[in-house]
Amino acid sequence: MKINSYAFQQINVSIMKYLSSMRILFLFLSICISSIHVSAGHGQVDTIEIHSPSMRIGVKNVVILPAGYENKTNIPVLYLLHGYGGDHKSWIQIKPELPALATQYGMIIVCPDGKNTWYWDSPVNPEIRYETYVSKELTGYIDSHYKTKKDKSGRAVTGLSMGGHGGLWLGIRHPDIFGACGSTSGGVDIRPFPDNWEMKKYLGNYHENSQRWDNHTVIKQLHLIKPELAIIIDCGTEDFFYEVNENLHKEMVYRNIKHDYISRPGVHNGAYWSNSIEYQLLFFSHFFSR
């Protein structure tokens, strides 16, 4: 049987196209399988919206689960708070390795959106209740929907800048909820900054409400600290919050309040926070494993 050369060439071209398509398909499947393995090996990142009954709004949160979550129980949770101008995505942008670190330390990391509220229940605006949201509503939701350790020995809270204030504020004021707390580059005494970062929007003008400002700053909450509360604080020596952190550290030493305090060269930026969170994760991991 004879096959003319043109027909033969067409058959050959069709075969080559088919083989090329199969190679592309195989490569695509290989990449997909590889991506699934990477995701599984480094934990899972989800964004969820939780209804806040106290504020009657939905609040977005990033939830980072360690790899192998399905096979674990009693997993400790770190609540990680963003700074002024940030949101629930800030920490995963600052530290993309958080899923791998969550897996390494066997913990869940939850990053709520706290707007610019300093994590207070505002005495000025009753619709701003982020202290209630994080300490009660968010922790309650996470405990009811995830395989957490439902006890303060399995909960910690920390954050950067405004979130550093929030971490200590919430940890100190809610010792029944959080067994450990921390701050990095935190605004731990707000009073030297009466016109900054919208604080007077939630507390009123400082000069007319100085007592209220006293009652809403971390350094004035030290009398509430329980001896068993584990605390870590750090701040860069070139940070504009360095002096208030030094003052907080000295006051805690004077009162014989146990805490870890770290100061090293650094400014108020993502590079410092990306580095400092690794020390804090190690600190909280040791707390959780006690």
What's the overall geometry? globular
Q: Write down how many β-strands occur, each being a DSSP E stretch of 2 or more residues.
A: 8
Compressed to H and E, one letter per element, the order equals HEEEHHEHEHEHHEHEH
Helix content: 40-55%
Mean model confidence by pLDDT = 90
- Summed up, the helix count is 9
The low-confidence parts are 1-40
- First CA to last CA: what distance? 83 Å
Major sheet details: 8 strands, mixed
- The value of Rg in angstroms is 25 Å
Main β-sheet, spatial strand arrangement = 1-2-4-3-5-6-7-8
How would you sum up this structure in a few lines?
With 290 residues, the chain is an alpha/beta fold.
Describe the model.
With 290 residues, this protein is of the alpha/beta class. Helix content is 42%, strand content 17%. The chain has helices at 5-42, 90-94, 98-105, 130-145, 162-173, 199-203, 210-215, 242-254, 270-288, and strands spanning 44-52, 57-65, 77-81, 108-112, 155-159, 180-184, 230-236, 260-264. It has an 8-stranded mixed beta sheet, sandwiched between helices. Helix 8 (242-254) links the parallel strand 7 and strand 8 (260-264). The chain is globular. Residues 1-40 have low confidence and may be disordered.
